[in-house]
Amino acid sequence: MGHVEIPETDISGPVGLRGAPRPRTAASRNRTAALEQLWRAPTAQRDPAGRVPARRKPVHRASVGALTDLLALAGPAWLLLHLGEQPRPWLAAAVAGLLWTGLRGARGRYADPVRAEPGGAFGALGDWLVLLGVLAVLHAAAGGSVDPATAVVAVAPGLLAATAAEGLRAGRRGRAVRKVLLVGEAAGLDRAAELLNSRTDHAYQLVAAIPVGPGRPGFESVQVPGRLATCPADDDVTTVLGGAYAHDADLVLVAPGPQLTGDRLRRLGWGLHDAGIALSVVSELSGIAAGRVRPVTAAGLTLLHIAPPLRGGPQGILKAVLDRGGALFGLLVLSPLLLAVALCVRLSSRGPVFHRQVRQGQYNRPFTMWKFRTMVADAEARKAQLTEDNEVDGPLFKMRQDPRVTPVGRTLRRTSIDELPQLFNVLLGQMSLVGPRPPLPEEASRYDEREGRRLTVKPGLTGLWQVSGRSDLSWQETVSLDLWYVDNWSVATDMGLLARTVRAVTDGRGAY
Q1: Which of 30, 189, 341, 472 is the one with CA 20 to 30 A from 282?
Q2: Over residues 144-149, mean pLDDT
Q3: How many CB atoms lie within 10 A of CB 206?
Q4: Three-state SS for 396?
């Protein structure tokens, strides 16, 4: 596939996207010929008139989503209220439907999926509970005569429909791939490309890059269909659009720098948006969830306000309640399994049923962690002999074929059943259901300042690293995932991680 670059020195003077023809000089004819060479290249199809074609814009789904929510709640609500012989069912259903749609819109459920955090089932449930509260206040203030129990049943179909719609949207987001064209100086391109290519838990596929200035990107696997001049030039938009069309990119990702100033970026945004191509800007921020970032404007500047991590408050109280309640429920439900496993461990090898080990908890406080024993009785004494066989970097010790693991223990580790006794630690308040794994004292003593931040929250029975590859991850990848959780956790995040843990345990990948 051919690529055409326009030398920065060959093009000067404005090039209008849809402007009227101007007098043709020799320099103008040369510039036009160069542009036509790019536009007519085999990888970038242009219309015969020489204008930059506008890509067909995607269908705006906000109105469709709002209308679906409105009808899904108001329709069944009217029918149920009418069958229940409630007064003025059409008015009550209309009010509930409008409130539901307005509430969902205000909470960003119909926003652009590129910028919006997916609400998921828990987002729909939260919206529905807020709706019930608003309707209760209106009912009390207006002195309505609708039966409250009937009203709750009447608006329940709206919750079911919204949950199903969120699930479908999440599935489409999971399958969809956004083809990305990177634009920026060499250093910014290298950083963005490295991060995008190092992870697979996102929908962005890097297809090409356009450097700004003379520097060359450090990667070779990505094609470079063009280059922008060091200073702002009239062909900036044309070059970027040519690269986007040539590689079928639907998103231009810009890494700003000294040579890509705010005014130049704004003009580039005009051309991209006019052509129907999305524009995103790489931020120097990393490890911060989108929900913690709030954009505001002041004096012509775009400021990003970053909310502090959760450390207490209502969500902290709710997390503690869910931890204790979930641990107690789990112990009661799983008691037959726990007794069966205890018997297998006791009969299969010499030694105690449980393995008790001192670990470092929140704020580096030591506690005794419980597990089913999966190794021979003298495993700790034999650890020093296996130090050279450690298969992970950092302070952790891991071996895929650890000779100290018993046959029963290998099965328990593969299924993570050996971790279930830690429900007692959660019940005692020493651990949480979700959080970073608790380190050994000798591991914690080797933490630097960055790694030590893992200890600012309670350690967990499961966490991000367990659902992201477990022992297959490097130490630095594990730390990065744990730090993301420490700074961005929420009750909704915990619920999602618990659900993903079931899949990770079933898969068994990375467990040894």
Answers
A1: 472
A2: 78
A3: 21
A4: coil
Considering the entire predicted model, what is its pTM?
0.63
Task: Give the mean pLDDT of 64-75.
Answer: 86
Q: Are 203 and 177 in contact (CB under 8 A)?
A: yes
- Using left for φ > 0, alpha for ψ between -120 and 50, and beta otherwise, residue 361 falls in beta
CA distance 504 to 464: 11
Measured between alpha carbons, how far is 426 from 474 in angstroms, rounded to an integer? Answer: 27
Separation of first and last alpha carbons in the chain: 46
What span, in angstroms and rounded, lies between the C-alpha atoms of 147 and 81?
9
What does each C-alpha distance from 53 to 45, 60, 253 come to in angstroms?
A: 9, 20, 20
User: Are 67 and 104 contacting, i.e. CB atoms less than 8 angstroms apart?
Assistant: no
Q: Average pLDDT over the chain, rounded to whole?
A: 79
Rounded Cα distance between 119 and 110, Å, is 10
Cβ distance 420 to 340 under 8 Å? no
- Whether the pLDDT of residue 222 is over 90: the answer is no
Q: Is the Cα dihedral 404, 410, 414, 420 positive or negative? A: negative
State the CB neighbour count (10 A cutoff) for residue 209.
Answer: 27
Rounded Cα gap, residues 387 and 391, in angstroms: 9
Distance of CA 427 to the CA centre of its chain: 30
pLDDT average, residue stretch 499-511: 68
Q: Say if residues 96 and 135 touch (Cβ distance below 8 Å).
A: yes
Q: Where are the beta strands (DSSP E) in 229-361?
A: 251-255, 278-281, 293-298, 301-306, 354-360
Dihedral, CA of residue 124, residue 127, residue 131 and residue 132, to nearest 10:
70
220's tokens: 């070779």
Token pair 């130090």 is found at: 387
Q: Is the C-alpha dihedral spanning 238, 243, 249, 252 positive or negative?
A: negative
Backbone φ and ψ of 396, nearest 5° = -75, 155
